[in-house]
What we know:
- The chain is mainly beta and 618 residues long.
- The strands form twelve sheets. Strands 1, 4, 5, 6, 7, 9 and 10 form a seven-stranded antiparallel sheet that branches. Strands 45, 46, 48, 50 and 52 form a five-stranded antiparallel sheet that branches. The protein has a four-stranded mixed sheet with strand order 8-3-2-11, with no helix packed on it.
- Strand 35 (426-431) and strand 36 form a beta hairpin.
Amino acid sequence: MMGGRMARSQMAMEYLIVYGIALLITLIAIFVLYTVFGTPQKSTLNTCTFSGGATCSDLVLSANTITSNTAIMVLLNNAGDQPIVLPSIRININGVNSSYVSCLPKYVKAGGSVVCTINITDKSIVGQQLSGKFYLSEQNCAFSGSVGSCANAVNQIYSGSFYGTIQSSGTNPNFVISLQPTQTLAGNVTGFGSAAGQIIVNLAGTLAYVSTTGTAPSGTVNVITLSSLAITNTIAAQGAGNMALNPSGTQLYVPSSWATPNYMTIISTSNNVVIGTPSMGTSPEAPVFSPSGSLAYVADLQDGNIRTISTATLQVVNTISFAGSGAVTFGITVNPSGSLIYAPIESGSTVNVISTTTNSVVNTITVGSHPYPVVFNPSGTLAYVPNAGIGSNSVSVIDVAANTVSRTISVGCGPDVAVFSPNGGNIYVSDSCGNTISVINATTNSVTTVQVGAASDTSPRVIIFNPSGTMAYVNNYAAGTISAINTKTYAVSTITVGGLNSEPCSLALNPVGSVLYVLDCYWPFPKVVAINTGQIGPPATNQKYPVTALLTVSGNPIKGATINFSTSNPTFQVSPRYVSTNSSGEATSYVWGSTAGTATVYANFSNTVSTNVIIGLK
Length: 618
């Protein structure tokens, strides 16, 4: 009897265990399904990915309130280094392919954007989740067999996928497209000495100065009139190397870095005449200036001194000993308040902090090996030091108040130049022995790596920004190219200067950012190459850039509807503001501006009919 009760108890226990586990698994499964997929009404973040020559930037899934048909809109970037033409796209949902539909614009430069819209006839419900595959067909100009031509471009197909939640199309999803026409060569200047060093554009944007060195100790500064792209003056400057303009742009300082005796050639930019030649040390560098511009600080590469020049008297007024003789520095930096000078010492893996009040070293901070010039955040509270030595490959972050390294951030190979973006949000670091730029978020200290060349050793060095901060330009010294980086998307377009027969060593932009000047130091025939960047220039250029909105319902054009054009950049004009669509459903406005930058254009459908607006450049 006891045995029977025990047997029944055991069976009951086994029953509870088996079905309890099954129930638990069921509950867990329900929890997971609810957690992952949520309720039917819960919106899921739209995502899309692409391979090959396109990158996915945005996706909108919407149900038209008139027909309930689904519209799938995708914004793609041309991730290649050559233009593409005639892009079109189809989708595959549940194994069923749609037909190819055309995208806008029909010509997309490297780094440019394209918008594709596909309308499917299946009835859809707002809140429903939808996924599938993309197939982008386009003719890639890189395979045309002719440089600069798309005439025989080979057709390419790239695949992608999407996932998201259908929303109502009652509100127009404004895609944002930057107006950046194709970069084009504006011309070039030749006739310099056998070795070139640096290019600087004056503040008015009318002249460029190029330092060149012939057989030592000779040297010149060549003055280029930018309107004609011609050398119009040549100024003798012994051993000319790197140069610097004072903050007001009235004086150009040219150190005799490659000759003896050493002095500073100071040129008045108003008449391009030498106005001073104060004596320097063994190997003077280009000066840095006090915030007021009254003092120029000149570090010596070898003798361990900083000489202070009065920009009023053009005489040396003080000499600061910041390191022993033979100590090597690759450049000094003045903090934003002008109270301190930071001098990295390559041989000691340290940064010397110098008071401009006492003219003496007040602190020595240990950083990584082979430190390069310091860059400060806008408030001057943090200093960033690239450490290019073997085994370092990092950026040391110095807490200025505590005079200590608060953080060390790993970056790419051989960081030697660090530059803050104009808005102060990111630090761009050139990885000189690789093919990347490391972008450090100044708030989170996270690093985004941007590839700027195909070869393992592209040797990016110089980084400059356009005035609005929308584009960064990098010289790939070893590759003979320039990389143009979109600072929002990090999309990169490549500008070929001269390939293997080119060594772009210095970059400069005109004040509005519409022309990039590249000094090609390729020996023995250096030259300056002028490139239209595609940024919108002043009204005097009479350049207007069209933006076209296409209005359709289920693929059918709407005629006579009003499109309201606007731009997020208040310095740019959009005219006409209100445009009626034609029989093809198109409405075109024009954008131009008087300051530097990129115009971002919006198109809103102001009528009561709910539909989808496609923005594209033509």
